[in-house]
């Protein structure tokens, strides 16, 4: 079952040695022919006016040091970065020519103008006209058809004259006659003049080259280096000529591909030595130096236009075509080409076979035959073709409609059973063929050089698409049931033993199990990795085969090796080749195959090794051809550049617009400081890798903001909004479709803090805080003092309140005391008043009594006749009168009266000093509210005398008649 790796390497080494010896004796040219015979059409990218949004006609193409493509268009200068087109109007003139100068400027020639384009400090392209500085007499030209650079001088070539710009001034070369197109070869400038022929510029004059008049009236399309000392001169209508120091010979196109009515617009020499010719009416031709056709592209081949005005080879070997209607890019250096309906092949590719010099191709539309560069349908084979195999020198075709054999370029059905998958001859039985079919296995036998159906093999009826023998045992992989191991009887007419191996036998699942025979060794694969059969335990176990170059989780769909030991494989979503190295190890090469990952057929995916130089991969449309010798390491590292950087906030502003040179590099605008109100940024970036198109992957991060790189993605824009203050570095990198990374580019900038977080603000905050703390301290101190004062005031108020309360209490106490005193005094007054009243009453009673006694005594004396008694009685009467008249009682009375009545008598005397004692007594007695009779008794006068006394008192007091005497005296 196994085949040692060492033996395999020995076989490979022997084959390589034999191949090398054969090559030494083989004409290299013939080998080149054979190698080219089975190539398809290259990748072609067409860009129409609707894509680049400009005029249909394009005249010139250049590329700058960043990889950007510039196209001279009828409506201006177009710039293409691989993703998007931009148009620059240049004074609304038709641009005819362009040149990328050594000084980094883009020199352009246009309708009635010429000048240069340079970026400003923000990376925006600005046009400067040089023609506008010319004197009027030399300003009258129509078109600037070509711009060249020779020895640091720029030559603007028009039909009237040539203008030479040295960076400061313009010199004028005035020819004797009208110029046609001019051409640069090395450091020489040639021009064509219809009247004279081909001339060369020497100094400031054009001189006819030796025999240059041969080209008189033969319009020249271009002049190229051919060999040392030889030029290839292509004319518009008369083909091409080889010129060598006056010797002129026609350039011979080999074969019958060239016609005399093809009109040449432009030609150029490619880096590999081939010659590219753009025509007016037949598209593009690529020929070898000896004139042999390599490639012809026209509308049927995929070009959108037949008129090629200019051809440019970019730094990656891609061929750009400026056409009368659009722009195209042809991947000449790609190891992949297409074999599809443009070459006469229809349908999706499923199988292929190389037999001698013929390639048979099987698609879902039938069988096709590719011979001598032409593909033709093989009649009678319409429908799905599954396999094309060579057995016993015959070509067998497994078809949905049955089994076919190809003889004499024609297909003949030999078996009608539908669903012929594949064919295998049992080991040691070359006369027998087992066919895997939809419904099992069928046995065929070779008889008389023809294959004849013998019988259906008994004992097995499962669909059998994948068959591999291991000795006399046959392994059959089923799409969703696992893998079967079959043993046959002696003549292979019956399956005598059948066992199925699936997830119960060591596989991870029952689906996607395959078996391949590589270098005579069976390799089993499943939906996760490689497996080998352990006969001892009769089950499968994981294998480390190819584990060092393929992932352990790889799901292989197809594998096939070439004669050199290289293994081509298809995973579920990946293609590649394991290349055998000198150290007997494999090296996985898969990145190149990323180019076709969207083109290969994922239904019964297949990869077919025709020979070591021609590998076919089944495609959605036909096949994809792979040339291993063209899959060489790419030496040009992909680049990435900023396309646009915008700062936004309160207003939007452009920081950078994608273009730079030595005078205005991107570094010059790095490390800018932006206001906090402008703290949002938008970055657009691009990697101009034209083979990748829009499939370039990008990864970015903003240092000081993003912790990690972003995931790889196709989006080439990133926006950051509302960034905090700080210094940031936006870093971006890319990798193309071949997984080749670019270097990182970065843009650094600083966002200033808002005014409230600036250094001055923090100083202000610091000093402000200190000041506020000071004010706070002052305020707290003041507040403390105020609180202390308030507390004191409150305490004082409390004290005052307490004092007030105490005073109130004291006042109330005093008032109570006063009241008590007053009450006491009032009581005393009342008492005294009572005493006065009592005293007065007593006095009144005494006086009344004395008066009564006196009157009685007077009466007695009248009746008494005794003189002695009368004498005694008269003495007694006199004593009574004396007692009545005495004032001692009044003195005591007046003192007591003043005490009781507030010094009434004293005040009355002071205010009314004219009052007599008797009138004062009247007043005192009236204040005591004594009646007239009582007053009369006290004063010992009559009632009439009292009334007279009252009258006198009123008069002395100055009272009127309406005034009440008693009220006045009581209020006094």
Automatic annotation (TrEMBL):
<dbReference type="InterPro" id="IPR016032">
    <property type="entry name" value="Sig_transdc_resp-reg_C-effctor"/>
</dbReference>
<dbReference type="GO" id="GO:0003677">
    <property type="term" value="F:DNA binding"/>
</dbReference>
<protein>
    <submittedName>
        <fullName>Y_Y_Y domain-containing protein</fullName>
    </submittedName>
</protein>
<keyword id="KW-1133">Transmembrane helix</keyword>
<dbReference type="InterPro" id="IPR011123">
    <property type="entry name" value="Y_Y_Y"/>
</dbReference>
<dbReference type="InterPro" id="IPR011047">
    <property type="entry name" value="Quinoprotein_ADH-like_sf"/>
</dbReference>
<dbReference type="InterPro" id="IPR013783">
    <property type="entry name" value="Ig-like_fold"/>
</dbReference>
<keyword id="KW-0175">Coiled coil</keyword>
<feature type="domain" description="Two component regulator three Y">
    <location>
        <begin position="690"/>
        <end position="751"/>
    </location>
</feature>
<keyword id="KW-0597">Phosphoprotein</keyword>
<dbReference type="InterPro" id="IPR036388">
    <property type="entry name" value="WH-like_DNA-bd_sf"/>
</dbReference>
<dbReference type="Pfam" id="PF07495">
    <property type="entry name" value="Y_Y_Y"/>
</dbReference>
<dbReference type="InterPro" id="IPR015943">
    <property type="entry name" value="WD40/YVTN_repeat-like_dom_sf"/>
</dbReference>
<keyword id="KW-0472">Membrane</keyword>
<dbReference type="GO" id="GO:0000155">
    <property type="term" value="F:phosphorelay sensor kinase activity"/>
</dbReference>
<keyword id="KW-0812">Transmembrane</keyword>
<dbReference type="GO" id="GO:0006355">
    <property type="term" value="P:regulation of DNA-templated transcription"/>
</dbReference>
<feature type="coiled-coil region">
    <location>
        <begin position="782"/>
        <end position="830"/>
    </location>
</feature>
<feature type="transmembrane region" description="Helical">
    <location>
        <begin position="755"/>
        <end position="777"/>
    </location>
</feature>
């Amino acid at each position: 079952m196994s085949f040692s790796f060492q033996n395999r390497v020995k076989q490979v080494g022997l084959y390589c040695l034999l191949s090398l010896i054969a090559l030494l004796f083989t004409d290299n040219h013939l080998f080149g022919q054979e190698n080219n015979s089975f190539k398809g059409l290259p990748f072609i990218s067409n860009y129409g006016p609707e894509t680049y949004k400009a005029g249909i006609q394009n005249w010139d193409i250049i590329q700058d040091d960043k990889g950007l493509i510039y196209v001279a268009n009828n409506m201006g200068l177009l710039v293409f970065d691989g993703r998007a087109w931009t148009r620059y109007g240049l004074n609304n003139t038709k641009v005819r020519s362009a040149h990328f100068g050594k000084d980094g400027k883009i020199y352009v020639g246009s309708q009635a103008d010429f000048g240069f384009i340079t970026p400003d400090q923000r990376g925006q392209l600005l046009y400067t006209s040089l023609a506008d500085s010319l004197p009027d007499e030399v300003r009258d030209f129509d078109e600037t058809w070509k711009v060249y650079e020779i020895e640091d001088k720029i030559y603007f070539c028009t039909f009237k004259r040539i203008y030479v710009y040295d960076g400061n001034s313009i010199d004028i070369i005035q020819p004797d006659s009208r110029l046609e197109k001019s051409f640069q070869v090395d450091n020489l400038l040639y021009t064509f003049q219809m009247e004279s022929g081909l001339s060369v510029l020497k100094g400031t004059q054009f001189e006819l080259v030796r025999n240059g008049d041969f080209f008189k009236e033969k319009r020249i399309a271009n002049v190229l280096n051919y060999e040392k000392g030889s030029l290839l001169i292509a004319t518009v209508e008369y083909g091409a000529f080889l010129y060598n120091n006056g010797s002129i010979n026609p350039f011979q196109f080999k074969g019958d591909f060239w016609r005399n009515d093809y009109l040449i617009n432009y030609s150029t020499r490619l880096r590999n030595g081939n010659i590219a010719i753009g025509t007016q009416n037949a598209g593009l031709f690529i020929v070898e130096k000896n004139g042999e056709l390599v490639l012809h592209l026209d509308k049927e081949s995929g070009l959108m236009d037949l008129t090629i005005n200019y051809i440019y080879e970019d730094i990656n070997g891609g061929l750009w075509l400026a056409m009368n209607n659009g722009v195209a890019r042809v991947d000449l250096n790609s190891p992949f080409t297409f074999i599809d309906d443009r070459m006469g092949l229809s349908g999706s590719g499923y199988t292929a076979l190389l037999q001698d010099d013929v390639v048979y191709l099987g698609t879902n539309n039938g069988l096709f035959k590719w011979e001598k560069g032409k593909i033709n349908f093989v009649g009678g084979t319409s429908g799905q073709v599954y396999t094309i195999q060579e057995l016993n020198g015959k070509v067998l075709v497994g078809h949905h409609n049955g089994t076919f054999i190809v003889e004499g370029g024609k297909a003949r059905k030999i078996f009608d059973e539908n669903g012929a998958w594949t064919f295998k001859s049992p080991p040691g039985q070359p006369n027998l063929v087992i066919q895997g079919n939809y419904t099992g296995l069928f046995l065929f036998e070779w008889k008389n050089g023809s294959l004849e159906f013998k019988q259906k093999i008994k004992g097995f009826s499962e669909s059998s698409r994948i068959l591999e023998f291991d000795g006399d045992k046959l392994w059959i992989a089923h799409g969703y049931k696992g893998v079967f191991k079959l043993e046959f009887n002696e003549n292979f007419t019956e399956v005598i033993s059948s066992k199925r191996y699936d997830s119960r036998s060591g596989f991870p699942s029952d689906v996607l199990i395959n078996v391949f025979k590589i270098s005579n060794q069976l390799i089993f694969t499943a939906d996760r990795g490689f497996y080998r059969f352990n006969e001892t335990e009769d089950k499968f176990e994981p294998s480390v085969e190819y584990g060092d170059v393929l992932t352990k989780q790889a799901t292989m769909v197809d594998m096939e090796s070439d004669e050199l030991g290289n293994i081509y494989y298809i995973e579920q979503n990946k293609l590649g080749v394991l290349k055998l190295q000198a150290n007997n190890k494999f090296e996985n090469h898969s990145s190149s195959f990323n180019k076709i990952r969207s083109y290969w057929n994922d239904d019964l995916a297949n990869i077919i090794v025709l020979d070591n130089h021609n590998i076919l991969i089944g495609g959605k449309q036909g096949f994809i051809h792979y040339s291993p010798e063209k899959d060489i390491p790419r030496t040009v590292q992909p680049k990435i550049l900023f396309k646009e950087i915008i700062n936004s906030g309160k207003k939007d502003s452009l920081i950078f617009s994608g273009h730079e040179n030595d005078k205005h590099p991107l570094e010059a605008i790095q490390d800018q400081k932006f206001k906090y109100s402008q703290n949002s940024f938008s970055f657009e970036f691009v990697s101009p890798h034209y083979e990748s198109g829009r499939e370039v992957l990008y990864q970015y991060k903003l240092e000081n903001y993003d912790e990690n790189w972003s995931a790889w993605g196709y989006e080439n824009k990133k926006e950051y909004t509302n960034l905090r203050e700080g210094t940031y570095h936006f870093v971006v990198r890319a990798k193309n479709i071949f997984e080749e990374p670019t270097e990182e580019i970065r843009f650094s900038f600083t966002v200033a803090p808002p005014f409230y977080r600036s250094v001055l603000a923090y100083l202000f905050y610091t000093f402000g805080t200190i000041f506020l703390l000071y004010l706070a301290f002052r305020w707290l101190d003041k507040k403390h003092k105020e609180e202390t004062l308030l507390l004191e005031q409150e305490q004082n108020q409390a004290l005052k309140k307490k004092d007030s309360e105490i005073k109130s209490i004291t006042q109330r106490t005093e008032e109570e005391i006063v009241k008590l005193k007053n009450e006491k005094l009032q009581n005393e007054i009342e008492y005294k008043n009572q005493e006065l009243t009592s005293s007065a009453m007593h006095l009144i009673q005494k006086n009344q009594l004395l008066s009564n006694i006196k009157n009685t005594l007077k009466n007695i004396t009248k009746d008494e006749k005794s003189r002695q008694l009368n004498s005694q009685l008269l003495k007694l009467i006199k004593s009574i009168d004396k007692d009545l008249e005495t004032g001692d009682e009044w003195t005591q009375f007046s003192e007591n009266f003043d005490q009781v009545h507030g010094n009434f008598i004293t005040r009355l005397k002071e205010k009314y000093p004219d009052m007599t004692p008797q009138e004062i007594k009247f007043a005192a007695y009236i204040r005591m509210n004594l009646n007239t009779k009582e007053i009369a008794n006290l004063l010992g006068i009559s009632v009439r005398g009292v009334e007279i006394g009252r009258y006198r008192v009123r008069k002395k007091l100055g009272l009127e008649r309406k005034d009440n005497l008693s009220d006045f005296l009581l209020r006094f």
